Amino acid sequence: MSRATVEFRDFSFTYAGMKIPAVRGINFSVEEGSIALLAGASGSGKSTILRSINGLIPHIYPGEYKGDVFVDGQSVIETETFELARKIGFLFQNPENQIFMFTVERDVAFGLENLGYEPKEIKKKVEWALKLLGISDLAKRSPSELSDGQKQRVALAGSLVMDPKIIVLDEPTSLLDPKTAQEVVHLVEDLKRTLGLTVILVEHRLELVSAIADKIIILNKGEVFAEGKPDQILAKDNLHEAGLSIPPIIELQKRLGLVDSDAVAMDVDDFLQRFVQKWQL
Amino acid sequence: MMLSHGSEGGYELAHVLLEGLKFRYQRTIVHRLDPRVKLLLTLTLFVIALMSSNIYDEALTFTAILIPASLAKSIRRLLRLLVYSLAFSAFIFIINYIFTHSLFSSSIVTVRFLGIVASTSMFFMTTSPDEVEYVLRWFRLPRDFVFAFATSIRFVPVLMMDLTQIIDAQKSRGLELDKGGPIKRIRNLVPVLIPLVVNALVRSSELAEAMEARGYGATEKPTSMYSLKMTKVDYLAVAIILTAAALLLSLFLHVV
Ligand SMILES: Nc1ncnc2c1ncn2[C@@H]1O[C@H](COP(=O)(O)OP(=O)(O)OP(=O)(O)O)[C@@H](O)[C@H]1O
Ligand SMILES: [Mg+2]
């Protein structure tokens, strides 16, 4: 039996000083060890949802908080941010703004130092995290001289070193070139598999991540617009209402009448198989 | 860097100075000293430069600076930095001459100034920001202060990059930085400064989020992966520095 690691119950939040809620009536849950994709137009509330998971809302961002958010069975509003920091790794869009130290290894150590780990243990864990992300040879380098993809790996190592259960990524690929973006996506999937992580990922390029997601949640104007398995969601014909563009391979299937009520092919092989079946070639 | 002419000269000069002072990782015996020893070395040279009062003193001071500089393979950088500070030295010379009417004493003051520049820059050229942070921690300065200091240094190159990008973007939209009279030129800076400040604010709020997400402030006593340790070479260096300093100062003060 799987159980929910993150759960939103009738959650609404209005930032202090704002008249309308940034998100409202949010209900969804993410199962342990799965990858959930959060998509939606700009301003639809994706970052707000993520901040509510790691406690920045309401502990850092004041505002009107309604309903409940549970992480690992604990209510976020009743848990200190540093306690959440142990459980939840966080990765932002711009790695530059989450790297603090002058060398890669010291930056990876930053979280552990904050939590008061012994130096010996820090060294061991840092070594492990660097190896996990394939950046051991960068340990002594200065982060400012690394490529964007490498910086993203350093930031990821800095989160994973704290041995989180959950990892939350806010558009981690939007500043990367397509190939590096693909690499980061595969890396996330690998890490989820080897470490048994629960992953919550924000991304609006559906085609980039649909293949690895177990669940897609689409937000529109602060509300959950649709929620379900990737092929169910992609088979919908009203995604443009939520400001999303439909991946070409899906559009093609729709035009060819290859889409049954709730199933689509997401890669070319799968697509060809359906095509052959349908037309009995 | 693509900026090289007109009113951007000030920017260029700032850039050169920053480059000159910037730490560059080299594996020389001086670079590898404990940062506290490098601080002691710099402070000692600083005091010596400050106390020198005649030609012989100055000669000894510069010898004392050149020895560690050559061990650190940094003579050329040091000279370049001194050349850049010549404009300011000329200013000091003139002011002094106006007040004292003595070419000789004005020269001494000016050379003394160069000695001070050279001695203090030794520290920045041989000590990485990382090591500076360790020294600040070793002095038990408040964690927030050390962190703020380290972050501001860490973000200098990032903000420089932002600045270059903003200038390029605004130029491509027709902004001409070096057109018009002085008032107009200052007004020209507005479309550069506003995005720069906004950018910095966005960065700082993201930084604050990232700090929080990585447990900053979780305990009263954060630990450190590495701590400073003096080696035999470091102790030897301390002995040499102190002996040389005692010797020079007693020469300066005519004790011997
Ligand atoms: N710190 C804040 N203070 C006030 N309002 C905010 C704040 N952050 C976001 N909002 C508002 O909340 C709403 C949701 O914003 P949010 O940042 O969650 O959207 P998003 O889906 O992450 O958008 P994007 O794709 O642009 O990152 C928006 O209307 C936004 O203006
Ligand atoms: Mg966002």
Q: Calculate the terminal CA-CA distance of chain B, rounded to whole Å.
A: 53 Å
Total count of helical runs of at least 4 residues of chain A: 11
Principal-axes geometry of chain A comes out as globular
The class by helix and strand makeup of chain A works out as alpha/beta
* Largest interface pair: A-B, 43 and 32 residues
The count of helical stretches of chain B stands at: 12
Number of beta strands of chain A? 10
Q: Please, how many domains of chain B?
A: 1
Question: SSE order of chain A in H/E notation?
Answer: EEEHHEEHEHHHEHEHEEHHH
The appropriate CATH architecture of the largest domain in chain A is: 3-Layer(aba) Sandwich
Q: Strand order, main sheet of chain A: write it out.
A: 6-7-8-3-9-10
Task: Spell the H/E element sequence of chain B.
Answer: HHHHHHHHHHHH
How would you classify the quaternary structure?
Answer: heterodimer
Main beta sheet of chain B, described? none
> What is CATH's topology name of the largest domain in chain A?
Rossmann fold
Binned, the helix content of chain A reads 25-40%
Judging from the principal axes of the Cα atoms, what is the shape of chain B?
flat
